User: Which sequence fits this backbone?
């Protein structure tokens, strides 16, 4: 006796069974699609161009080694032209018409927040491979760049010890700068220092004359900068041109991450203190192999920067997770990422912290000297303790917000 | 006291920047009544010429003070002959044509130089005033702006060419009746305005760097300065640049750079409400 419910169930099962071979065929033949969304032109191209090259390198490398799960990887790239409005548009395109399996990209925190909801909704894992202000708590995103607890916490004690306790903070006027400035004053306070003033600048400001006069009036021992992009680079030029560079030292959470030290002259850049996870001088096999590969592929290794290395490592971390999960499907890949997965990248060992989806990695305290970043001191395997303070994706897997420090 | 000197220099610097970016427009728009929406790109072109010249090994000052004005002046000449001269007296058409030119030039810059930030190092070191430092280049810009104003004043007031230009702008029909070739006067004036823009763009390049879209940062301020200045080229530009430069810089010092921008724009709105024909339409009438 066949009733209607039974009939429906059998047909559904049969339809499922029939469609199964086509899924299997798709898995073995079609390429895995990796979406890349970066500012390859415009005022943030100093960050975006090397990141895009790194993505190309990483994908070619994986493909040369036989691809993932026996499938080749296809990189689908969009240039957002340093225009935040284009991010949402291209993110929609990536998930709707290109149907990518993962997205790597976004540079400014504003761009990350623009596309994060789209990718979460579409169930496409999102890798944000850039140093940022920390605090993003979302199971769909993996942040492989350094955060204030890794960077500022290393930079500020060293700068205060070397230069003095009175600090003047300059930051870009959007979420990265605002939150980073908070973390800066947090760590300045923790190290017995005092923030005299904090100033924010829209991203297109390029005249810093009045600010330089104000800084002189405040007479700090140290100026901390979280300025971002090509227009803000004028600050360092004008600072050196006014002769202030020899009077008040600088430390920055952003300078050099886009290879700005190559654009500035030695007189403009020398002596500025920074902290990043990568330096060309890190003496480990993974870094040497990376530099060699880059040299063979692109010629000039001087174009590599922190963001490029982050992007390269981000893609390899994702590839590790796909191998471990043995599929590109969303949930298994995220679970694999939460199993404490790690790789040996150019910056050293880098692992994903399951609680926050942030990276555990090595840090280098550095100084700009003659247009290169020279290491003063290295710090091993630093946890993203800023984000860990607020975020526990194991306890609250549905969490979906960016936490900020309260001061 | 030393701090007062630093602040004064900053204010003068801010005035000088406004004077420089609007002097070319003051000639083209103030005198000729041609709304040149490609003014910002003329500035950018001057900057790129200076950067290219410097990179090919020429002296930086030669590139900024001679090469850039000459090249942009010639470019202005070409633009006037090919585009603008067909549109005199047709305000909207000129706006559309020069806006198109502005887009085309921005596109051309992106193709040639890449959509990226280019800069040249600052040629002058800082000066010490008591406990403070001021940028040597700021002083250079202030001097350059003063010189530009002085030269325009002398040319307009004391030379035959200036007399002809002023006459031709005020009463083209009468000038023509005296046997002057009006078309050539317009052409020369437009080229001179373009050359001034080229000079300004080149002088600003070491300070802020250049990208293909840099012109857009200047055009609004240049128009505000020229329109608020009113009919007189020199007096108007100095008066409105002086007013807006001081206001924006003082507010930047007291609040933030955003505060400075807002103060400048609010001041312009209030001023144009009170004096719709500009400062020199109300005061200093008949000045050059």
Assistant:
């Amino acid at each position: 006796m066949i009733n209607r419910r039974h009939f429906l169930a059998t047909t559904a099962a049969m339809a499922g069974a029939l469609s199964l071979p086509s899924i299997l065929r798709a898995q073995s033949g079609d390429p895995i699609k990796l979406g890349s969304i970066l500012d390859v032109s415009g005022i943030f191209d100093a960050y975006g161009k090397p990141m895009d090259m790194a993505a190309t390198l990483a994908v070619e490398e994986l493909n040369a080694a036989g691809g993932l799960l026996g499938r080749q990887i296809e990189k689908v790239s969009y240039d957002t032209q340093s225009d935040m409005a284009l991010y949402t548009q291209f993110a929609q395109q990536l998930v709707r018409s290109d149907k990518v399996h993962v997205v790597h990209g976004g540079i400014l925190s504003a761009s990350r927040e623009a596309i994060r909801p789209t990718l979460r909704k579409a169930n496409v894992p999102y890798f944000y491979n850039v140093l940022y202000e920390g605090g993003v708590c979302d199971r769909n995103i993996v942040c492989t760049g350094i955060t204030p607890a890794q960077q500022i916490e290393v930079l500020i004690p060293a700068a205060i010890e070397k230069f003095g306790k009175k600090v003047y903070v300059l930051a870009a006027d959007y979420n990265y700068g605002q939150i980073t400035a908070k973390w800066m004053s947090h760590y300045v306070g923790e190290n017995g220092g005092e923030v005299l003033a904090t100033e924010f600048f829209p991203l297109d400001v390029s005249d810093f004359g009045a600010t330089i006069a104000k800084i002189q009036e405040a007479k700090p021992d140290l100026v901390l900068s979280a300025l971002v992009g090509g227009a803000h680079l004028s600050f360092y030029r004008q600072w050196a041109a006014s002769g202030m560079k020899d009077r008040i030292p600088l430390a920055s959470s952003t300078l050099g991450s886009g290879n700005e030290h190559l654009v500035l002259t030695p007189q403009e850049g020398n002596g500025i203190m920074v902290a990043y996870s990568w330096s060309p001088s890190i003496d480990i096999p993974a870094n040497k192999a990376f530099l060699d590969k880059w040299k063979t592929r692109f010629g000039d290794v001087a174009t590599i920067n922190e963001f490029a290395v982050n992007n390269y490592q981000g893609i390899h971390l994702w590839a590790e997770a796909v191998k471990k999960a043995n599929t590109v499907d969303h949930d298994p890949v995220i679970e694999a990422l939460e199993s404490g997965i790690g790789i040996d990248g150019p910056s050293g060992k880098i692992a994903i912290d399951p609680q926050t989806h942030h990276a555990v990695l090595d840090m280098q305290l550095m100084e700009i000297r003659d247009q290169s970043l020279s290491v003063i001191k290295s710090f091993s395997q630093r946890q993203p303790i800023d984000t860990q303070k607020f975020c526990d994706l194991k306890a609250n897997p549905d969490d979906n917000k960016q936490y900020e420090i309260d001061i | 006291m030393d701090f007062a000197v630093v602040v004064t220099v900053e204010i003068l610097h801010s005035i000088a920047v406004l004077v420089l970016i609007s002097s070319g427009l003051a000639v083209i728009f103030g005198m000729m009544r041609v709304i040149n929406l490609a003014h910002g790109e003329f500035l950018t072109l001057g900057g790129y010429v200076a950067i290219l010249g410097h990179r090919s090994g020429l002296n930086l000052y030669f590139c900024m003070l001679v090469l850039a004005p000459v090249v942009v002046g010639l470019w202005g000449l070409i633009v006037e002959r090919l585009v603008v001269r067909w549109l005199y007296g047709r305000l909207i058409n000129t706006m559309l044509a020069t806006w198109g030119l502005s887009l085309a030039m921005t596109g051309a810059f992106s193709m040639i130089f890449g959509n990226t930030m280019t800069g040249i190092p600052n040629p002058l070191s800082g000066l010490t005033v008591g406990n403070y430092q001021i940028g040597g280049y700021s002083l250079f810009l202030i001097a350059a702006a003063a010189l530009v104003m002085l030269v325009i004043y002398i040319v307009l007031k004391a030379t035959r060419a200036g007399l002809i230009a002023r006459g031709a702008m005020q009463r083209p029909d009468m000038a023509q009746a005296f046997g002057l070739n009006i078309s050539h006067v317009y052409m020369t004036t437009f080229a001179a305005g373009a050359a001034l823009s080229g000079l300004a763009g080149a002088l600003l390049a070491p300070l802020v760097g250049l990208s293909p879209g840099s012109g857009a940062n200047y055009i609004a301020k240049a128009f505000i300065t020229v329109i608020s200045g009113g009919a007189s080229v020199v007096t108007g530009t100095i008066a409105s640049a002086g007013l807006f430069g001081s206001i924006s810089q003082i507010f930047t010092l007291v609040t933030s750079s955003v505060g400075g921008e807002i103060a400048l724009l609010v001041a312009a709105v209030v001023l144009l409400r009170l004096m719709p024909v500009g400062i020199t339409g109300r005061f200093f009438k008949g000045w050059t």
Remarks:
- Chain A has 14 helices and 16 strands.
